[in-house]
Specification:
Blueprint lengths: L4 E4 L4 E4 L14 H21 L2 E12 L6 H12 L8 E7 L1 E5 L5 E4 L14 E3 L5 E10 L3
Parallel strand pairs: 3-4
Antiparallel strand pairs: 1-8, 2-8, 3-8, 5-6, 5-7
Helix pairs in contact: 1-2
Bound molecules: zinc ion.
Length: 148
């Protein structure tokens, strides 16, 4: 009964990184942006599934920085659309929020962002930038391989 053995590739690849995204105007956060992110995730997933000899992608886990304003619902919706005609069709997409280190550009204190709170705990400034971690990357991919 091991014909369809789920396999975790443990992939950890950057698909999109936007330094300074935290204070970027919301204009950038439109649907086109989210669609292109989803397409990037799909490309990483497909590349790994192929190199692992997988017949199908079961699920993809995506890490999103706490400060990221990407909407998970929107990403999930685009995901189904973007994967429809590929080996990733029907794959689940899961999101995990990761804490991000931010630097206050006012008082130069670094701190960990919690959820969407981007205010410096020291001086209350909103003038901050991310200093570690990527806004979004593929954390792992579960694939199905054909049995021998
Ligand atoms: Zn500060």
């Amino acid at each position: 009964m091991n014909a369809n053995r789920p396999q975790n590739t443990g992939a950890c690849l950057l698909v999109g990184s936007a330094p300074g995204a935290a204070d970027a105007p919301n204009l950038l956060r439109n649907e086109v942006h989210e669609l292109s992110l989803v397409e990037g995730i799909r490309e990483v997933a497909l590349r790994h599934a192929r190199s692992a000899g997988a017949s199908r992608i079961l699920s993809v886990r995506v890490a999103l920085a706490d400060y990221s304003s990407y909407l998970e619902d929107a990403l999930a919706m685009f995901w189904d659309e973007a994967c429809a005609a590929s080996e990733a069709a029907g794959a689940r997409i899961e999101f995990v929020r990761i804490p991000a280190e931010l630097l206050c550009l006012e008082c130069l204190k670094s701190f960990t962002a919690h959820e969407m709170n981007l205010q410096c705990p020291e001086c209350g400034s909103h003038w901050v930038k991310p200093i570690s971690g990527d806004e979004c990357y593929v954390e792992s991919i579960d694939v199905e391989t054909k049995g021998p």
